[in-house]
Amino acid sequence: MKANNITNIIAWALIILGIIFIFWKLFGGSPTEFSILITLISGILFKIMALGNDLSALKEKVKNIDNKFNALASDFKTHIK
Questions:
Q1: Would you list the DSSP string of 57-76?
Q2: pLDDT tens sequence across 10-51
Q3: Taking Cα atoms as reference points, which of 41, 72, 61, 8 lies closest to residue 33?
Q4: DSSP designation for 28
């Protein structure tokens, strides 16, 4: 869980830095388009990695709940007989 928070922080920092670079390019003209694209794409990739980690954790929780429901269903079936 800790690594996911770090990934989110890095992603948002890179996305904000990319937006700052865009405004800097518009008003001052210093960063290149390549550096802006690399920063924004890196931020988006980190965000996708964090989203993938969240989904895998959610998938594991759903699998555990599914196993608990199956155990509960088998308990009810044994009580009915």
A1: HHHHHHHHHHHHHHHHHHHH
A2: 999 999 999 999 999 999 878 888 999 999 999 999 999 888
A3: 41
A4: T
- CA-nearest of 46, 42, 54 to 18 is 42
Q: Indicate the pTM of the whole model.
A: 0.68
**Distance from CA of residue 12 to its chain's centroid?**
11
d(CA 76, CA 19): 57
Residues 66-78 have pLDDT tens digits of 777 777 777 677 7
- Both tokens assigned to 57: 């954790």
Tell me how far apart the alpha carbons of residues 52 and 70 are, in angstroms, rounded to a whole number. 27
Query: Of 10, 64, 18, whose CA–CA distance to 41 is shortest?
Result: 18
With contact defined as beta carbons under 8 Å apart, do 17 and 39 qualify?
yes
